[in-house]
Design goal:
The chain has one domain. 51% of the residues lie in helices and 14% in strands. It is an alpha+beta fold and 152 residues long. The strands form two sheets. Strands 1-5-2 form a three-stranded mixed sheet. A two-stranded antiparallel sheet has the order 3-4. The chain starts with a helix and ends in a 10-residue tail after the last helix. It has five helices and five strands; from the N terminus they run H-H-E-E-E-E-E-H-H-H. A hairpin with a 4-residue loop joins strand 3 and strand 4.
Length: 152
């Protein structure tokens, strides 16, 4: 009795992960690869968020070039944490700096928000990193340098 419920709960959480897309947006091949846990995640905040099927290939360390992909090379579904994922985190980081959150408060809030959105450790960490970078940038820009020639 317990096993079917556990499988249902795991499948539900997995299918609800926003970065994985909903089941309707994935092809049958992508769904099959996900069921086999053939998944790769990438952090590319300057590119568009997306998912695609990639084939794993070997790189020649001497030439740093990619060898020809063999027909039997393993396929994976690649999910990219891109600009559409990064921008909300950056906006949140700026907002928290304006509202005078402490660095610890900002970190905890970003972590909770990222986990709630993605339910995935990698994507949550990417979200936190983007938000904290924006928070730190905003905090640093709020501090005005003291002019040593002025007298108070």
């Amino acid at each position: 009795m317990r096993q079917p419920l556990a499988v249902f709960l795991i499948a539900t959480v997995f299918l609800l992960s926003p970065h994985r897309g909903n089941a309707d947006s994935l092809t049958k091949e992508e769904q099959a690869l996900i069921k086999k846990n053939m998944v790769m995640e990438m952090y590319k905040p300057d590119e568009h968020s997306r998912h695609f099927i990639a084939h794993i290939s070997k790189t020649d360390p001497r030439t740093e070039g990619t060898k020809k992909v063999a027909k039997d090379s393993p396929a994976v579904v690649c999910f990219v944490f891109g600009m559409e994922d990064a921008q909300p985190a950056r906006d949140e980081g700026h907002s928290m700096a304006e509202c005078k959150y402490t660095p610890q408060q900002a970190h905890e809030f970003l972590f909770a928000e990222g986990w709630d959105k993605y339910h995935d450790r990698f994507f949550t960490r990417c979200y936190v990193q983007e938000g904290e970078n924006a928070y730190n940038e905003a905090i640093n820009s709020q501090h005005k340098p003291i002019d040593p020639t002025s007298t108070s």
